[in-house]
Write a structure and sequence with these properties.
Layout: H1 2-12, H2 15-30, H3 39-55, H4 58-157, H5 167-173
Length: 174
């Protein structure tokens, strides 16, 4: 408000009021060092240039305005580079977060593939065991069937009461 008051007073020709308002604004900003180099402080130079212009001192007003613009452009460049650095850092952080998420997903995928491979191996083991058991059962069945066939053949040749060869075997043998 003091800067605006100084500009308005300079336009009206009240240069004492304009100088006092500008000085009060300068005093306020000197008590706050954290504002040093901000656009608020730079606006004081622009207001001083406006006052000098209305006084008719155009050469000094031009110098003040040139200084103001140089500092203002420099500040904009610094702020832009700071913003660009912040954006670059932010984008790098997001990229790293995405890479971490991608690596986690790849890790989960690898775990699932390993789990699927283990299940497939387990199924193959079960099939092999089943095949072996079935083969053994079939073999045992053949052995039992052959033994039973021998018994039946032996019974068909001998009489069960006397143990002697029966009539059919005797005639087949002769």
């Amino acid at each position: 408000l003091l800067k605006q008051q100084a500009r308005c007073a300079a336009k009206r020709g009240d240069f004492e009021l304009a100088d006092r308002a500008l000085q009060r604004a300068t005093d306020i900003f000197t008590t706050m060092p954290e504002l040093d180099g901000t656009t608020w402080v730079l606006d004081l130079e622009e207001a001083a240039a406006t006052i000098e212009y209305h006084r008719g001192n155009t050469a000094h007003a031009f110098e003040l305005l040139s200084s103001y613009h140089e500092k203002y452009v420099k500040q904009l460049e610094e702020n832009s580079s700071e913003r660009m650095n912040m954006l670059r850092i932010d984008l790098d952080n997001k990229r790293k977060d995405l890479q971490i998420a991608l690596l986690q997903q790849e890790s989960q995928l690898n775990e699932l593939q390993v789990s699927a491979q283990l299940q497939e191996n387990q199924q193959q083991r079960y099939l092999i065991v089943l095949f072996i058991v079935l083969s053994l059962l079939i073999l045992i069945g053949f052995v039992v069937q052959r033994r039973n066939n021998r018994r039946v053949l032996a019974l068909s040749h001998r009489d069960s009461l006397s143990g002697l060869y029966n009539h059919r075997y005797t005639f087949d043998y002769l």
